[in-house]
Amino acid sequence: MASDEPRPPGFLPARLPAQVLAGAWTDLDVLAHAAAVARAPEEARALVDRADRAGELAVLRQRVNRLAPPRARAAAMRVAVIAAACGWTDLDPLAPESRRAAREDFLGLWSSLAHRGDHERFVALPTLALLNWAPLHKSQRARTTDQLARGEVLVPIVRWSRSGQPLSRIDRLMLASVRLEAQGIWLLRIAESLAGRGPGDETVATALCRFTRIQHVLRTQLRTERVKLAMAPTTAQQRTVLHSLAGRGALEPPILLAADTVLGIGGRPGNTSRPQLRRHLPAPHRCRLSTLERDCAPLRTLAHRSGPDADAYREAQESLIVLRRTYTELVGTAMEPGPVRPMWP
Known about the structure:
- This protein is mostly helical.
- It folds into 2 domains: about 25-130, no CATH class; about 160-335, Methane Monooxygenase Hydroxylase, Chain G, domain 1, CATH 1.20.58.
- Helix content is about 55%, strand content about 0%.
- Strands 1-2 form a two-stranded antiparallel sheet.
- Helix 1 (about 25-35) packs antiparallel against helix 2 and helix 1 (about 25-35) packs parallel to helix 4 (about 70-85).
- The longest helix is centred in the last third of the chain and has 28 residues, at about 310-335.
- The protein is globular.
- It starts with about 25 loop residues before the first helix and ends in a 10-residue tail after the last helix.
């Protein structure tokens, strides 16, 4: 069945993420905002317990199938925020032992949204960041989401800092990831243009040189983001959330996964495999990368060759390794203790 949704621009959603939820789902909205600014996981868990006792989660669990896809993704983002704030990033909502840590109705809501979106491991950056942003001002003309993300001042929908306070480091990291994906769409387009090409194709060296130039632009962008992020406040709770996500490979930007798929190397964190990192992506994006990996197999044979094409290929590989290192430094800065500045009144 053909979808009436426009084709997504890169890995960003095709339409702006829903800023508010309606009806009974406003309870989830309120819970996500409160959990995100909790001072500790125990405080966030107490909020979930309260919502469970009030019957709010049981009601929502029964209504997941009524949600349109964009609203289901919006609800999943809020559940991801709650799970991360509660320190439940390692939980499998379907595992019986998870019931010892989290309320059954919350786990049921979590697993229902995962099934609804065919996205089992959605407590990760693709959901927490790419579905959690909006332009500060309404655009006066029709533009795609990647154009809005590149050209407008962005704000989080669910903030990890309290209203009226400066954006925190985790907020800025998530928004930096959105801008990285928006600018990186050019990288993805070149990557898909390289599909099926290989040694001897006269356009390969030119495309790879463009690939490298865009990676340089993205690296400069991340360095600028790091300067701004270093000046932002943070809390022990927010750093705990980031450490937990990073430890699971759940802070990996999709555009870096795409570049690694084309080039076959990119300095992935630790010994994390591509399938492990891709499980945090929704099904259409996983499929897109699998197709790209298959179609770029001829290109990757340049790793064992010599000549101008092979030189351009290796330069692109080296540039990707440096780009990934720059992103790792950005995440590292987000997890460091920040300026001594009160986050709460």
